[in-house]
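Input record (one chain):
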Amino acid sequence: MLCPQRLAAPLEHHAIPASLNLTAKSLGPESHTACAVAAVVHELRQPLSSMLCNIQASIRWLDRDEPQVPEALRGLRDCAMLARQMSQISSALLQTYSQRQMVPCTVQLDSVMAEVVAGFAEELACQSIAVNLQVEPGCSVHADSTQLYLVLRNLVSNAIDAISAQHVENRQISLAAYPMAEKTLICVMDSGPGITESYQAFISEPFFTTKADGMGMGLAICETILSRYDTALRHTVSRRGETVFMFAMPSEKACM
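The corresponding structure, as predicted from the sequence alone:
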């Protein structure tokens, strides 16, 4: 359930730690072959899986005694959309791990957040997870849109996993943006049980995972992307007990 709304609370309500250094150099992992290959596999396996499902469904529609061409075409159009998405993701990862010069542009945060949530629509509905978007209309940052999409998608994916065992009424994810002078603080919050203390020092390490089918690359990819913007991924717990992942991006006004 997507519930867009205006900012419901000031930044102080979420107890963002004063130690968050918005201009600090990222301590993310160095780009190397193993991480680059794993990043590509990590980010492309979900759209590839979706593409395979669409192709198989389209074949079934066409293989009927009375072929259902419109339904098959719908599946094939979805495949074309997924192929374009994979091309954009591949380009963004190549740019990230090859250290090529970036060409940032204006990215509307409400649009990219809504796009990320839409990509999980079926999973969110099946698990009865409520999602709140807390972002002012027109709030924008200076970034590569696909790189920002990948960071948010990984954080939302982790949030979904974190709250899947919670009671249905306690399953909630919030994406928020807080504009400041030259930066915009972006937060992804979930109502899950939090991060085990013994894991906290390792969660951003490449290949570290607590999931049976995980690759341990999601947060490592986030760290590597954010390092290109001279920022880093931080996490804390809000006063309401939410797990909060946050990072700062250059505001569009600061780049004019």
